[in-house]
Amino acid sequence: MKNIFIYLTFFLMSCGIAQAQKITLESGSLDAIKSEKAFNIAYDYSEVSVGKFKSEDDYINKKVTDYNAKEPGRGDQWKESWLSDRDARYKVSFEKLMNKYLEGEGVSISDENTEAKYTFILKTTFIEPGFNIHITRKPAMVDVLLQLVETANPNKVLCEIKSIKNPGNSFGGYDYDTGVRIQEAYAKCGKELAKFLVKKAF
User: Fold this and answer.
1) What Å distances lie between residue 112 and 42, 85, 92, 95, 146, CA to CA?
2) Which of 68, 113, 156, 162 fits a 20 to 30 Å CA distance from 62?
3) In sequence order, which residues have a C-beta less than 8 Å from that of residue 15 and are 6 or more positions away?
4) Is the Cα torsion angle 32, 34, 39, 45 positive or negative in sign?
5) Exposed, middle or buried: residue 108 (CB in 10 Å: 0-12, 13-18, 19+)?
6) Tens digits of per-residue pLDDT, 143-186?
7) What pTM value is reported for the model?
8) Rounded to 5 degrees, what are φ and ψ at 112?
9) What is the pLDDT of residue 134?
10) Is residue 113 classed as helix, strand or coil in its secondary structure?
11) Residue of 154, 119, 156, 123 lying closest to 39 (CA atoms)
12) How far apart (Å, rounded) are the C-alpha atoms in residues 128 and 131?
């Protein structure tokens, strides 16, 4: 009975988060890409706030200091893991789900498509790491701004799409690793942005 209650609580919490998720075309138009099939993609973490911290640097410095105080070197290892997750987890999960939902249109997005006419820039603006301490949990969440630019002229922004409150958690509650929770948030983000592009552009 206890397990049923836990799963029900988790399900209802997930439904509430999903309803809060939102994607909007903030500016510009997607008309230019209707006939394109390959896109380059780049990632920008230069202006990210994390949890209650206004800047990612402040968050990282606090975590490093706290962890190193408990165990010398632990904070430095944590920082290395936090930063490496961008390429090892977030990027991989985002592109995997985005391409999964774009493949039906014959469209691909990859940072290896450097010769593509257009580039998407995924600017992460907010990360909520969340937590899972067995008896209670808070899902991760990411907010992003997806910019469409000309590859040859990245200063020319053709459109901007905002995607907020993308939730990240693992069904069953086995997301004790912060990187796993955030990774799932990027996967959800990739899925929903792909569906938005299919509906609005392709």
Assistant:
1) 10, 19, 13, 12, 18
2) 162
3) none
4) positive
5) middle
6) 999 999 999 999 999 999 999 999 987 555 554 678 999 999 99
7) 0.86
8) -90, -10
9) 64
10) coil
11) 119
12) 9
